[in-house]
Amino acid sequence: MINEDHAPVRDLFRLALEDGPFRFYEAETGDAGWELACEIRPDIVLLDVLLPGRLGGLDVCRLIKADPRTCGARVIIVSGARVHAAERAAGMAAGADHYLVKPFSTARLIEAVHAAHTAMC
User: Fold this and answer.
1) E strands, the chain, where?
2) Percent helix, strand and coil across the chain, each rounded to 5?
């Protein structure tokens, strides 16, 4: 599942990962992301921190990790540049399994998603 408010970024994620064994579901807001996660129960979530709506990315991460329906999902936070150590620590404290700082290479994205996928098997 991709929870990202910028369509070009969602497109980049899909293009980078389209050769893998993945089905893609997308949400543009934190609220929609949480609803979608409850509905589809994703294996892996690519989650932006700054999302429009009532719920931000860290809220969505906490909810996913706390809910028995979704707690098995591997959450990869993807956040904007200039991330401070405290912000990264907050993401990990919210339950993220991995943290990528934009901009990052598609190779790093593929590596993180495949590592998350392998950890699930």
Assistant:
1) 2-3, 26-27, 44-48, 74-79, 98-101
2) 45, 15, 40
CATH of 2-120, one of 3.40.50.2300, 3.40.50.790, 1.10.10.10, 1.10.3720.10: 3.40.50.2300
Q: Give how far the C-alpha of residue 48 lies from the chain's centroid of Cα atoms, to the nearest Å.
A: 6
Q: What is the pTM of this model?
A: 0.93
pLDDT at 90: 92
The region, left, alpha or beta by phi > 0 then psi within -120 to 50, assigned to residue 82 is: left
Residue with the two structure tokens 């991460």: 61
Q: C-alpha angle with apex 43: 66 to 61, nearest 5 degrees?
A: 35
pLDDT beyond 70 at 112: yes
